[in-house]
Amino acid sequence: MKSAVKPLPKGPKGSFFxxxxxxxxNQPLEFLTDCRNQYGNIVPFKVGPFPVLFLNEPEFMHxxxxxxxxxxxxxxxxxxxxxxxxxxxxSSEGDLWKQERRLASPSFNHKSLELYGQIMIEHTQKMLxxxxxxxxxxxxxxxxxxxxxxxxKTLFDSEITKDNSEFxxxxxxxxxxxxxxxxxxxxxxxxxxxPFPTNIHLLEAIKKVDTVIFKLIDERxxxxxxxxxxxxxxxxxxxxxxxxGLTDKLIRDEVFTLFFAGHxxxxxxxxxxxxxxxxxxxxxxNLVHELNTVLRGRLPEVTDYSALTYTEKIIxxxxxxxxxxxxxxxxxxxxxxxxxYEIKKGxxxxxxxxxxxxxxxxxxxxxxxxxxxxxPEFTHNLPKFAYFPFGGGPRTCIGNxxxxxxxxxxxxxxxxxxxxxxxxxxxxxxxxxxxxxPEKDLRLRLHKR
Length: 449
Prior knowledge:
By secondary structure, the protein is of the alpha+beta class. The protein has 2 domains: 1-85 and 326-364, 2-Layer Sandwich (Uridine Diphospho-n-acetylenolpyruvylglucosamine Reductase, domain 2), CATH 3.30.43.20; 99-322 and 389-448, CATH 1.10.630.10. It has helices at 21-26, 28-39, 58-67, 76-79, 82-85, 94-104, 110-130, 139-156, 165-182, 185-188, 197-220, 230-240, 248-279, 281-295, 309-321, 353-357, 376-381, 400-417; strands spanning 42-47, 50-55, 72-74, 136-138, 328-332, 336-338, 341-343, 348-351, 418-422, 430-432, 436-438, 443-448. α7 runs parallel beside α18 (400-417) and α9 crosses α11 (197-220).
């Protein structure tokens, strides 16, 4: 006999007019963690007049992302930023998303990753050639530059140079103003066209970015043969298949979404990983031992990936402890059940990697950096969605293999050549914006091995 539907449990009330909007805006990591600690793993609250449900149970997450994925769409953070995301893989829904996923998939298969891997290694070596013994670097800035160059080459077959510095500057500005919008509940609930200063600056930056991308599309239209970048792949599909459904605008949306998502999250993975290694010299020593054993002084290659097991564990543990994507949102389009609870249509749902990845039910010493925890046995016994740095279900990040390969190759090359030391006197604080960043850029001192 089917069990009775339960009413939702109690959650935080917040203020009369704004609900929990201020807490979610100003201290989201602390607020969601407090929700779990005080109210449990299914917590209702309101942001203004809008109902929100925070979930921190792997079974409930599986319902939202897998078994009832068709009942949930992207949340307001994506829907109300169409000028930025367009109709790319991150924001599209239904048949359009299925078509885009099918078209993009070949660009992330094993053969393509082998080609991209060489680009990753070459760009990392170019960066390392600029570094000198004893130099202090701003690590987030350097990692952003590295992954930006890799993304430009693999997606556009283009190099980041002084000639396209305006494009890079506009992209950085667009990311900044998007973060400002997404961190302000009032702006987030309003269309980008409402003339607030943040919206105006965001649209100006996007216009500059689009000018460059559409110019690249025009220039590449008759020169796709022999090229393996994603832009050329999409243009060739459009030209060769009359019914592909691809337009220049859709191509722009696709490559821009992957460009934005692909470079920033990997840059932050590397930033946090290098910071953690500088803070944990014992882990760094174990990593160097693996690199010396596997590589024996030569440069890393894509074929080394499977042998760099401890390096991969370090990346996985970094994404657990400091997940670049710290939360994802959905909105249900019809009444549904999550567990034994009835969820009304129009409820925003929050799933937080940050909270789940620090859950004592699944991780011993969850606030500690322990790469050795990632044994095959531990991974096998970990419930699905107790660890989900790349999301899950049909909409799992298509670039997860790309991101892991890039992170392992770059980290191997960096740590093979330099040891790291934290510049003294830094107060490292978290900034959970669109992604989880350091509040201020982290400074690391390099020592040549």
